[in-house]
Amino acid sequence: MKNKNVLNSFYYAFQGINIVWKERNFKLHILSAILAISMAYILKISNIEWCIVLLCIGIVLMAEVFNTTIEKIVDMVSPEHNPKAGIIKDLAAAAVLIISIVAAVIAVIIFTPYFLK
């Protein structure tokens, strides 16, 4: 019975990925991740740098999933236009923007020395 619960957990998690995949911004983050991974591979960055790049990618994607979750909850609770609901959505989007900017700065810090060689 426990194995079935674990399998169900994975099933529902993949359902969540399928849901967020339909979001335009998630696809843009995936495209950025592919670009970062490609650059890391081509430039042969160190193992530590790989870990940092992958961690940044994971955090940005996770933030986008949380943002989508918050948006869907707000839409469910407040389907009509509500300025306070809009503020909540804006705050969730701001979190994604902040971590995306941090990830981009980290990418510049990691990749620039390789381009300057």
What would the CATH topology be? Helix Hairpins
Task: Estimate the mean pLDDT confidence.
Answer: 96
- What are the segments in which pLDDT stays under 50 over at least 5 consecutive residues? none
Biggest beta sheet summary:
none
Structural class label: mainly alpha
- How much beta, percentage-wise? under 5%
> How many runs of DSSP E, i.e. beta strands?
0
Shape: flat
CATH class: Mainly Alpha
Explain what you see.
It is a single chain. The protein has 117 residues and is mostly helical. It has one domain: Helix Hairpins, CATH 1.10.287.3610. The protein contains four helices and no strands. The model has no long low-confidence stretch (mean pLDDT 96).
Short description:
The protein is an all-alpha fold and 117 residues long.
Topology, element by element:
Layout: H1 2-21, H2 24-43, H3 47-77, H4 83-116
Task: For the structure shown, list the relevant keywords.
single chain, 117 residues, mainly alpha, Helix Hairpins, flat
